[in-house]
Amino acid sequence: MSRLLRIENLLLPQFAGDVPDVPINLELNKGEQLLLLGESRFLLQGIMDSIVGLAPLRSGRIVIAGEEMSSPERHIAPHLRHCALVPALGEECTLIPDLSLLENVALAAHPFSRHKRLQMAQYYLEQVGLTIQGESFPAEQPEEIQFWTLVARALTQEPELLLIEHPGERFSTADRQRIFATLQILIKESGLAALICSSDAQLLYHSPQIAIISERGIEQRGEASELYCTPKNYHVAQFCGPCQRIEGTFIANQIIQCEFARVRPELPYEMIGLPEKTTFLLRPHEVFYESRALSHATVSINQFAGALRHYSLTLGSGNRLEVTTPSEIDIAVGKRFPFRLQLRHLLISGEDGDFIDLGAAASV
Fold this sequence. Notes:
Layout: E1 3-11, E2 24-29, E3 33-37, H1 41-52, E4 59-64, E5 67-71, E6 74-75, E7 83-86, H2 101-106, H3 114-127, H4 143-155, E8 161-165, H5 173-190, E9 193-198, E10 209-214, E11 217-222, H6 224-229, H7 234-240, E12 244-251, E13 255-258, E14 262-265, E15 277-282, E16 287-289, E17 295-305, E18 308-314, E19 320-326, E20 336-343, E21 347-349, E22 355-357, E23 361-363
Parallel strand pairs: 3-9, 3-10, 7-8, 8-9
Antiparallel strand pairs: 1-2, 1-4, 4-5, 5-6, 10-11, 12-13, 12-15, 13-14, 14-23, 16-20, 17-18, 17-20, 18-19, 20-23, 21-22
Helix pairs in contact: 3-4
């Protein structure tokens, strides 16, 4: 695949608030869809504004389709950048209520004649699956139709790169799945690339590629399963799903002793350089109910959730342990809950805060 977007050592301007001083580096190829997830909407907005040409850079450079678009010494106008922005629904630059969807899309197809603009608008509405809604007005259509109208409007600019802001925060899970799947087909068939930014962690499992960003820059990039199973650090782990940091101590025979269990990796590892005191990552589904297990706690909360049950267990110290089990395991509140641990990856915290992967592990 050929490189379409390259961001090198980008430092955002500081005129509107605090931004990280850690350089941001990011690459995107043609045909790729990348979801950029971060807690700071200001940081995400700053990156999008810098790519589209609405904000200057403190340092670094942005290259789109092989051409340098931004650097401290160079700034190409937004309409010459080979990219188009799909704004979040509800923002001022979205749809004009007094114009039909077709007319809203045609507005972006300048500098052509009105007849040509309407032809282009109709073509791109059909490209996103809107064949009969063009004559209707925004208020007459659900928000998903309005979103695809914004995508069609962006496509009339014939970009090579789509920039999409916060696409799923107003939609149901089913709508999100459909939107991301359709986007992926559209991008591959048209040879575009798409950079999608959001603060909504629920979008994590809808995109083929995800990058987690924070004040430390790009924390980790990969598929959702990779980020969930082997997160780089606790920040990434939290973004990917519920988890807890469990305090423990290394004891003999490569075992970690924590408050409620002893855990040993299935494969031997080198203990040189590892601190005696440590913490490891534990997710709710890594705690298994087992009637003969030595570890146990008292059920404080038993919450039914379809095929699953979510438990909150109280340990002898008063600390809580969050657990997810199949729904058929039904232990009443106040009763004893025996359990064992089974981890696909025993992730312990290193000195720099990043995890060290000791491999699969289980209670002993």
